Amino acid sequence: MIESSCEGIVSCTDVLAVAAREAITMLGGPSYEVVLGRRDSRSTSLAAVNGQLPGPSFNVSQLISAFGSKGFTAEEMVVLSSAHTIGQARCSTFRACISNDTNIDKEFARALRSACNTNDENLAALSASSPEKFDNGYYKGLMAHRGLLHSDQELYNGGQLDELVLLYAMNETLFEMDFVAAMTKMGELRPSTGEEGEVRRQCSRIN
Q1: DSSP code per residue over 39-85
Q2: Radius of gyration, alpha carbons of the chain
Q3: Among candidates 187, 207, 178, which has minimal Cα distance to 82?
Q4: What does the alpha-carbon distance between residue 107 and residue 198 come to, in Å, rounded to a whole number?
Q5: Do 156 and 147 touch, CB atoms closer than 8 A?
Q6: Whether the predicted pLDDT of 136 surpasses 80
Q7: CA dihedral sign, ordered 105, 107, 108, 109
Q8: Which one, of 188, 32, 34, 155, lies nearest residue 85 by Cα?
């Protein structure tokens, strides 16, 4: 529909960026400006994308390194991780965590093992306290040792980031302010503009 109204003007990348902002706002999170004008890549590779994303089994050092390679500080990594305040994850991504990790709530782990049973495709909320609301409940869950993914609970595990998790759990206004700043920075991360890339006519394929 957008392409038929604005042929060759609005990229799929811009649509996704605006949709993400609108979803966050609709679920109670802060609004922020989305800088437009991105262009879409002329190539596509699932393996290449997955290779750029931090994994659910990452430890805190790996997380800091992964975000640092994109120009983000450890503090920005903590605030961007709050995107896990909404959404769900498959049991395959956290089965090892609820079976082996010793830093998560035992009742929480037991309930998840029961819910997953033997089906890796079953789903669980990333933030059980408010799975359909964008808020700082994610951090409160970490403090209660109820991080669903190993990489989540690593943010609050007796290390250097505990204080920041506590701060965001106690101060939602500060959390939202820092989240807006980090998302704005992420939106400026090496976008294709000008003559780079293309504006795809269909988002699932190159022109």
Answers
A1: BB-S---HHHHHTTSPPTT--HHHHHHHHHTTT--HHHHHHHGGGGG
A2: 18
A3: 178
A4: 50
A5: yes
A6: yes
A7: positive
A8: 155
Helices (H), the chain: 2-5, 12-26, 46-50, 60-68, 74-80, 95-100, 106-116, 137-143, 150-153, 162-170, 172-187
Q: Which residue has the tokens 């089994």?
A: 57
pTM of this prediction?
0.88
pLDDT tens digit sequence for 8-51: 778 888 999 999 999 999 999 999 999 888 888 888 777 877 77
- CA atoms of 55 and 151, how far apart (whole Å): 7
Q: Smallest Cα–Cα separation from 156: which of 141, 175, 177?
A: 141
Calculate the alpha carbon distances from 152 to 21, 26, 45, 89 in Å. 22, 24, 26, 12
Instruction: Please give the single-letter amino acid code of residue 133.
Output: K
Round the average pLDDT of the chain to a whole number and report it.
91
Burial of 173: CB neighbours in 10 Å, binned 0-12, 13-18, 19+: exposed
Per the document, the length of the chain is: 207
Task: Read off the tokens for 197.
Answer: 């890339």
